[in-house]
Amino acid sequence: MFLPQMDAIDQDIIRLLHENGRMSYSKIGELLSLSRVAIQKRVDALIEDGIIENFTVRLNAARLGKFVSAFFEVEVEPRFVEQAGDLLSREPEVISIYQMTGPSLLHMHALLQDERALEQFLFKKIYVLEGIVGVNTHMVIRRFKQGTGLEL
């Protein structure tokens, strides 16, 4: 698949949108000395080419009552990886889940209300799944950086 080459203007547009996804095309145009229409056309092309997948909002988990951020390494029997990944991905606490290399391993990030909710999540939503071999849980103490995707 041919990936279009981005010029410096496209990269500047992406950088500005990455810093503030709500920045108007007029404001971006003003900063880059281009018209709003020119910026809109470029953003539309970046979307059409699949470079920009979507626009999103980052929520403050603690303000929403989610005080525990935890990562899980879930080891699963190979024949149950797909099923476990699918079931866990449906849980509202789970914000990301990936199948990793090595033993049949799922790497998962979840946001939970408190330690009791973490315990319930482990025992009522993970350990009960067929094929679970083991779980390593790591609670976040401090965040140094949280990405919203690939940065240029």
UniProtKB/TrEMBL annotation:
Pfam families: AsnC_trans_reg, HTH_AsnC-type. PROSITE patterns: HTH_ASNC_2. Keywords: DNA-binding, Transcription, Transcription regulation. SUPFAM superfamilies: Dimeric alpha+beta barrel, Winged helix' DNA-binding domain. GO terms for cellular component: cytosol. One of its GO terms (biological process) is response to amino acid. PANTHER family: LEUCINE-RESPONSIVE REGULATORY PROTEIN (PTHR30154), TRANSCRIPTIONAL REGULATOR AZLB (PTHR30154:SF34). This is AsnC family transcriptional regulator.
